[in-house]
Amino acid sequence: MSTLIEDVTARKIINSRGDATIEVDVITTEGFGRASAPSGASTGRAEVVPFPEGGVEEAVRKVEELIAQEIIGLYADEQEEIDRLLHELDGTENFKNIGGNTAFAVSLAVADAAADSYGLPLFQYLGGFLASDLPYPLGNVLGGGKHALGKVPDIQEFLVLPVGAESFSNAVEANVAVHKKLKSLLKKVDSTFTGGKGDEGAWAPNISNDEALEVVFTACKEVSEEIGFSCRVGVDFASSSLWDPKKRCYVYARDDLTRDTGEQLDYILGLIEKYNIVYVEDPFHEDDFESFKELTSKAHGCLICGDDLFVTNVKRLRQGIEYHAGNAIIIKMNQVGTFTDTLETTRLAKENGYVTVVSHRSGETSSSHISHLAVALNAPIIKTGVVGGERIAKLNELVRIEEIIGERARMAKLRII
Ligand code: PGA
Ligand code: ZN
């Protein structure tokens, strides 16, 4: 059962947007691991730099000419040491030299290879026997912003969270039902609707932000009645994309209006109340910890989640904890680079009562590692879309994981604050 690393290779592949990304293979004496990196479109300013100067080709070269030599001969289960080495080889705070996505692919391929060497699925290698809770899938069903073109809503994502599901498989069926229901409802609301979708497989209709909320709310309500358990609405404002720093306001171009910070707060509080919203992500731009704090204290029974605010970064999360900003955090491993960094942030989040949401990115590959990470990290929510090959890769892997866990499988405890 040796996890001795004998070879490391890298190649350029494409992601779901057709953009280049990196894939890394790690071969041990008795196992094989592979991982590929996703990419964001509405990235946080404080994320690590995804690729070195020279792009994916240079990242591949860095693996083959620099990283491989250092890692070959180490053991794949020495994850912390390998992740530390990646930081050392890079030598910067933000993985500018080797690229955060390079670090991501190496770090995760190492974990994958260690799991395979032990003959275990990744979630069991990382999480052990106790990893038996399935996350609720948070599914993007309608959207706009930077994930689509044309006269789409400014708000990036309208989501569904099937909070009443008793199994992961049922939860996925509910999300799919809401997505399908929306197709028929949208034909009535938008006469120009072509069935067009954005980067994450969510419908991208020509409707206003409020119309979008109304139709998603209706779809959730009707599906909840049909399937017999509750599906609730979530929203990712991705507010850093709406924020105009010069005018100091949020620009809703589709609705031809702007909101200052106070108006944004009142608008969101009103929406939470009206549509019984359970989840709000990035309601304010990435540096406004103060407004996150205010919304968190005023919005009861709703998760207030930081994505661009925290960028899976332990220092930014510490700042958030001091402020009491938010009560949930997006965990995107490639925002920070390595598995060890991700684990540190996740642990701190849990110790401080933040709900962890393991998440895909808008540009994805067909890899399903985040499904394993969500179970291993005992995250109550996974945000990973509803349809499209690169999204169902994650959902279907969780259906398999639920089957592997068998009778011990249960839905994670979802504490809605
Ligand atoms: P991404 O953003 O385009 O950076 O992946 C998705 C999100 O904001 O959740
Ligand atoms: Zn987001």
Percent of sequence in beta strands: 15-25%
Provide the structure class. alpha/beta
Instruction: Tell me the Rg in angstroms.
Output: 21 Å
In whole angstroms, the N-to-C terminal distance is 44 Å
Protein topology:
Blueprint: E1 5-14, E2 20-28, E3 31-36, H1 55-71, H2 79-90, H3 100-117, H4 122-127, E4 133-134, E5 136-143, E6 157-161, H5 168-189, H6 209-227, E7 232-236, E8 243-244, E9 249-252, E10 257-259, H7 261-275, E11 279-281, H8 289-298, E12 303-306, H9 314-323, E13 328-331, H10 333-336, H11 339-351, E14 355-359, H12 369-376, E15 381-383, H13 389-405, E16 410-411
Parallel strand pairs: 4-16, 5-15, 7-11, 11-12, 12-13, 13-14, 14-15
Antiparallel strand pairs: 1-2, 2-3, 5-6, 6-7, 8-9, 9-10
Helix pairs in contact: 1-2, 2-3, 5-6, 7-8, 12-13
Bound molecules: 2-phosphoglycolic acid and zinc ion.
Residues 236, 238, 281-282, 307 line the site of zinc ion (ZN).
Folded structure, characterized:
This protein has 417 residues and is an alpha/beta fold. The protein is built from 13 helices and 16 strands. The strands form four sheets. The chain has an eight-stranded mixed barrel with strand order 5-6-7-11-12-13-14-15, surrounded by five helices. It has a three-stranded antiparallel β-sheet with strand order 1-2-3. It has a three-stranded antiparallel β-sheet with strand order 8-9-10. Strand 14, helix 12 and strand 15 (381-383) form a beta-alpha-beta unit. The protein is globular. It starts with a strand and ends in a 6-residue tail after the last strand. 2-phosphoglycolic acid is lined by residues 40-43, 156, 236, 238, 307, 361-362. Residues 40-43, 156, 236, 238, 307, 361-362 line the site of 2-phosphoglycolic acid.
